[in-house]
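Attaching the record inline, Q. Sequence:
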Amino acid sequence: VRLAARGRATPLALAVCQGGLAGLALLLALALPHLAASGYLPPELVLQVLYLVILFSAGFAGGGVFSLASSLWQKHRPATAWRDGLFYAVDLLGATLGSLGLSLVVLPVWGLLPALFAVALFQVWAMVLLFF
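Structure, as predicted:
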C-alpha cells in the first residue's frame, strides 16, 4: 500500500501480491487433505488463530492487489473521477460475480479443493498476464 501511495507501484510488486495469493490457495489445497487424513485435530484455539491468520493474509494481499493495480492504472491513464470510479466499479463487479460464481456453482459442483486449485490457477494466470 505504501508503494502505491508513493507512486512506486510496479508490475513486479503486483505480481508478488498475486503470487502470494496463489501460494496461499495452493498451500491450503495441498495441506487440507493431509490434515484430514492424519485424523489429528488441533485444539480449537489453534484452529481459530490459524483461521484468522489465513483471513488476514488473504485480505492484506487482496487489498495490496487492488491498491497496486489502481496505482498502475493511474500511471497509464490520466486520473479523473470518472475513470477512477469506473476502475472501482469494475473491481466491485468482478468481486461480486466471482464470489457468487464460486459459492453458487464451483463449490457445490466441484468442492473445496478444486476451487482452491482454480483460485491459484487464476492468480498465476493474472500474474503472467502482467508481463505480456
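The first helix runs from residue 2 to 5. The chain has a mean pLDDT of 87.

More tomorrow.
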